[in-house]
Amino acid sequence: MKKTARSRIIGKSRSVRPPIVRSRRTRCLLTHTVLERLMHYYICLSKYDPNIEWISSPHLAVQFRVDDTQVRKDLAVIGVKGRPNAGFRRSQILERIREFLGLGRSLKAVVVGVGRLGGALVAYRDFRELGLEIAGLFDNDPRKIGGSIAGLTILSTDGMKSFIRQRKIRIAILACPVFVAQILAHELVEAGIRAIWNFSPTTLQVPSGVFVRNEHISVGIGEIAYHLLPF
Amino acid sequence: MKKTARSRIIGKSRSVRPPIVRSRRTRCLLTHTVLERLMHYYICLSKYDPNIEWISSPHLAVQFRVDDTQVRKDLAVIGVKGRPNAGFRRSQILERIREFLGLGRSLKAVVVGVGRLGGALVAYRDFRELGLEIAGLFDNDPRKIGGSIAGLTILSTDGMKSFIRQRKIRIAILACPVFVAQILAHELVEAGIRAIWNFSPTTLQVPSGVFVRNEHISVGIGEIAYHLLPF
Q1: Which residue of chain A comes nearest to B71, CA vs CA?
Q2: Same domain for A135 and A70?
Q3: Quick check: is B227 in a domain?
Q4: How far is residue B41's CA from residue A36's CA, in Å, rounded to a whole number?
Q5: Is the separation of the CB atoms in A23 and A33 below 8 Å?
Q6: How far apart are CA A108 and CA B126, in angstroms?
Q7: Residues A56 and A71 placed together within one structural domain of the fold
Q8: How many contacts, defined by CB atoms under 8 Å, are there between A and B?
Q9: What sign for the dihedral angle of Cα B91, B97, B100, B106?
Q10: First and final CA of chain B: distance in angstroms?
Q11: How does pLDDT run across A103-160, given as a tens digit for each residue?
Q12: A103·B222 Cβ contact <8 A
């Protein structure tokens, strides 16, 4: 069933607009924008009162500041269909998004760079709820090594590669200073990391088989500044 | 000139695709996605060696993992034209993005909720470089009030409204726990805040004149999980 749903999307995504995010596979599937919207729906709906079962698309549209046609399109992509005068079944939306994005599996990650931001990410509660498990913390600052955050000991980056290899970890959260980001990214890839969630404000060069999500927090300033401009 | 450039974009944006982000104005201008890409170009190019003046669109495309046609389209939207066999002038791109998004002005903000994440945001260096100035820190935890981060004293949320009104601050960075986010958002809007940068993992209800940018960090997990799925 999963396979059918996926192959349907390939056509869908192609016909709508050219994809922005390129996956490590040669053909592109869902765009970055669609993935983000699906995840927004998921996070929001999973926090609803469990007694609420039916949700209308205009209700969702208002919540996410998108068109309700867009909501229906997104849900159609993952195979969720509404019922006239009732709307969409919340549990079905959640299940399909979970299945579609692969959220059900255990996602083990290391955090590299445990400064203020790295520390905040380790302690971020929602990660665990979504299946992301922080398995190791690494830093190269001797004053930090040996300390602990959220029950995990901060280890030296010297042992990082063997730690990742032994535990077959595939995800790294990079929150280090810019000047070491590329060197660390290179080491992470060598150790077997296949996805880097990059919080360092720099662009990383990685081999084509590795996915990088750049979380440049400052990007938000542009949108805020723009919306405050007098017209 | 600014006005001409803007009115040109309105048409451009309409013809390309329906906008996702709705501004506080009745008509929509640039989409959330275009704004984010422009900001990514800006942050990246401003960190280049100042001696590099000409940049090609394929070079930019590789940096940002987008199509080079997309890069040229984005730059055309802000009125930057390339020169054959030379590319685009870096200083012109930076100037136009700055002008277009309104980054030149002073953007004063308050940070509400100074936990791990709020603290990390206050200390985030890139904010100041982009013109965002943190003018005040607020928390309702008596153990935090009176403490300081990056030279700023943490104040009680009791005095938040008058602080914002007196200094005519228009931006609030919300990094508080979910259960107080809506109450605080309401107070912020009453005090005159016109843009909320929301880091609390919840959706806020605000009047139509207020812009909210939801920075749900967990959203990234979806994209990472998806790209790690075996195909």
Answers
A1: A20
A2: no
A3: no
A4: 20
A5: no
A6: 29
A7: yes
A8: 203
A9: negative
A10: 50
A11: 878 899 999 999 999 999 998 888 888 889 999 999 999 999 999 999 999 999 999 9
A12: yes
For B20, the closest chain A residue by CA position comes to: A66
The pLDDT assigned to A63 comes to 77
Please report, for the domain that includes residue A126, its CATH number.
3.40.50.720
pLDDT category at A8 given cuts 50, 70, 90 is very low
Residue B108 and residue B135: Cα distance in Å, rounded? Answer: 6
Q: Do A66 and B20 touch (CB under 8 A)?
A: yes
Q: Per the domain annotation, does B228 fall within a domain?
A: no
Query: Could you tell me which of B99, B81, B93, B106 has the C-alpha nearest to residue B43?
Result: B93
Domain span holding position B173? 107-214
Q: Between chains, do B21 and A101 touch, taking CB under 8 Å as contact?
A: no
Residue to substitute from A101, A110, A179, A224, interface B, most B β-carbons within 10 A:
A224
Please check whether residue B11 lies inside any domain of the structure: yes
Contacts of A22 in chain B (CB under 8 A): 65
CB B160 within 8 A of CB B112: yes
The CATH number covering residue B85 comes to: 1.10.10.10
Query: Are residues A139 and A118 both part of a single domain?
Result: yes
pLDDT, tens digit, 9 for 90 and up, residues B19-41: 444 333 333 467 788 898 899 89
pLDDT at A231: 62
Alpha-carbon span B177 to B156, nearest angstrom: 16
Mean pLDDT of chain B: 85
Number of domains forming the structure of chain B: 2
